[in-house]
Batch of 3 targets.
Target 1
Amino acid sequence: MPALPATFNDFLGNSAAVEHLRTAIAAGRLPHSLILAGPSGAGKYTLALMLAMAIECERQPRDLWSNGQSLASFCGVCHNCTRIASAANLEEEVDKAVAIREELKTEADRKDTRVLIQPHPDVLIIPPDPPQLLIKLGQIRTLIQRAHYLPNEAPKRIFILTASSFMKEAANSLLKVLEEPPDTVNVILLAENPGELLPTIRSRCATVRLGALPVEEIEMLLADRRPDVPQQQRTLIARLAQGAAGKALGFDLAAYTAARADALIFLRNAAATSSGNAEPDHTALFKMTETYRAGAEGQQKTSALLRTLSLLLEDLLLLGAGTPELLRNTDLRPELERLNTILNFAWIENASRGVDQVQSGLRRNLLRSLSLDAFAGQLASR
Ligand SMILES: [Zn+2]
């Protein structure tokens, strides 16, 4: 992932939402509790860091518009800005924090230590805690404890929660802070799906939505930033990124195509079964699922497979709904059309539910190969 955009004008898309937030900061009326909602890759985390810089910047620059509107900005070079910007690569920061935890001496210490990222004494970033990838009570306890102290070096204490998946006790605990947030505190909660949050949490936050970018805009962005990628591939990536600029720029088409080849085995196998071929042969299917092992690598591979499978299933639904122009896997259109004549709506719905189940099993850290095999068996038996 690249560094943060140099200015708010370099942030891609959603300019109305960004203006609204900058105006609120400049006027000193940014809500204490804010939900930034939007699809993965829409720039929620990037924008949250930029907002934090605008709030904490030592120089507090403003963009003044001819209509008198004042928009908060950041200098990007002061000691507050640079420290906050150092957390731009969230994945890397989480990996570092996890590595530190793994080096702790005793099992008890490792168990009690929560993953937290602190680029600045007054800015705390709280990611879902691995391996369950949920925000846990210990993390929210740290937030509560720090929220009670005045900021050290900057105007505010800022807490960025990078996902909306909480352990129940953690969510209840967060609610207490949101009920009466101290004046010097800003909580920014990033959510792909705000519906996942407790209604009581949602009702105490202002929600700002970041929408997906149109396919054409992402294609233009790719042409500009990744001219090395052949045009046909850029067209495909723009659709597969589903409106997420960040995702499009970092898209690994080779890895996606590999995962999709496996996902297609599921669909071809199911199609062979339901078209009534005498004795369906599941060899290819189980040979494929066998290559998915437990462990961190297996988990990543399985997640990639499930994501591509769920995109393929959605594409089949789009074909079924008579809207082929919305297809994402455009390069596979002939095959998807063939599959669509064989696999009916009920099968696709059932398969989508199965994908959701395996995904939530992964989140609970069950044995991956086991749940994937069970899923394959379930699909093959119909
Ligand atoms: Zn600054």
Note: The mean pLDDT is 90.
Target 2
Amino acid sequence: MKTMTCRQLGGPCDLGHQGETADDVINAQDRHLKEAVKAGDETHVPAREDMKGRWKHPVKSMGWYRDMKKAFAELPED
Ligand SMILES: [Zn+2]
């Protein structure tokens, strides 16, 4: 397992997401952003909008995914 924080994934806080793959932590971050914004957390709104834009424009967002996968691959195992 590896841990990637909200901040490393483009968000504003230091909450850690654990996962076996980059997709696991990206999905965890997506859930976290949705929940934070639903709970009225304004600081997570820009990251939530960015994430929504990525789902809508997957081709344009390939660079971001590549960067996240690379960052995840370079993390030490927990
Ligand atoms: Zn966060």
Note: The two ends are 6 Å apart (CA to CA).
Target 3
Amino acid sequence: MSTVSDSAARSLLDHGWCLIEDALPTGWIVALNRDLAPIFEQSLFCRGGFYGERTKRFGRLLIRSAMARELVQHPHILGLAEDVLKPWCDTIQLNLTQAIEIHPGALAQLPHRDQDMWQGTKGEVEYLVNVMWPLMPFTEENGATLIYPDSHGSRALDEHPVDDPVAIEAEVGSAIVFLGSTLHGAGANRSAVPRRGIIVSYCLGWLKPYENQWLAYPPHIAKAFPSTLAGLIGYRQHRPNLGNVEGLCPSVLLNDGLPERVGAEDALRPDQARLVANFVAQQRAAVEPS
Ligand SMILES: O=C(O)CCC(=O)C(=O)O
Ligand SMILES: [Fe+2]
């Protein structure tokens, strides 16, 4: 792991968030923003108080711009997400890609923890790592993401109010990273221009992702993705055997397709494979003549 992600990981785990400056070149993000401009233009305002009536959002960024692949597979960020999430899963997965444009006059978003989309135990497990990529400088005035430092982990169980939020002012090329257990929300936009950013989030590989990745990128589209990216969006089994198709890895759908005659095949973690092998061997030994 690089020094950057080392110190970032510490800060992320200690305070629930971190800012990685110069994670990508400014010009690269400017070009991505240019790619997405017509889609922002076409998109309708959201409905509902959480998404925000003065906010536009669209997903499926991997088919909106070829550049999104790099964003989603940013090595430092992926390493960081794996460091945080791997204690609770075999492999991580892409949870969401979403472009967000908050227009002037937008109210602040309800402070929330993204982990609350899942009804599992809270306070012990980290479910999610969130990355906000500003497509333009984020300022307190234009609605920079508001983060409540130190509100993460077991503090998600506290009933008492946490400290005041901090508006994370950030330059283009920076990545604002925070945990699924960290209280946060979009700020109000009191400026004269829309605030644009992209959320890319990663979650435990055995969860139902927020954006349905298999429908966002069905096999005929995912076929064109490199296998690591296809794996990240769910075209791989989470051992043991989770997410299979006919007992096989779903990646078969991207290659030769399902064979005419199928036989299911175990995909177990090494500890489980050993357990199963021992159990099978013991029974064989019992029935076979010595
Ligand atoms: O746009 C932002 O700054 C944060 C958005 C957010 O947290 C969400 O929509 O869940
Ligand atoms: Fe959020």
Note: The first helix runs from residue 3 to 15.
